[in-house]
Amino acid sequence: MNQALLLAVLMLAACGGTAPAFAPASPKASAPAQLTPIGIQISAVGLAFFPLFVAKDLGIFEKHGLDVKLVAMPPPAGVAAIEKGDLQFMATIGSAA
Q1: For range 53-69, the mean pLDDT
Q2: Contacting residues for 63 by C-beta, under 8 A, at least 6 apart
Q3: Distance in angstroms (rounded) separating the CA atoms of residues 18 and 6
Q4: What pLDDT, on the 0 to 100 scale, is given for residue 22?
Q5: DSSP secondary structure string for all residues of 69-87
Q6: CA distance 26 to 17
Q7: How far apart, in Å, are the Cα atoms of 12 and each of 4, 15, 76, 95, 97?
Q8: Where does residue 79 rank: exposed (0-12), middle (13-18), buried (19+ CB within 10 A)?
């Protein structure tokens, strides 16, 4: 379930929405009454995680009922935060080797 939700969030972040890139959507206009809080760990604020920041700024997460908090922290701390329940997902980069 969590992997499917993460995949959906990342796909939405990559695809954008119907709003033009130069005019952020108003999240308050289309946001549901109750947003689901989601914490996503990122290892650094950089281009690798740019789609997540764009999706947040354009209100795409809010449009789909998610209150996303992007948290920059080292991956080992992210694993501990997920185990503790403080975060729900990790967005990581790296090689499979």
Answers
A1: 95
A2: 17, 25, 27, 30, 31
A3: 21
A4: 53
A5: EEEE--HHHHHHHHHHTS-
A6: 12
A7: 12, 5, 27, 23, 28
A8: middle
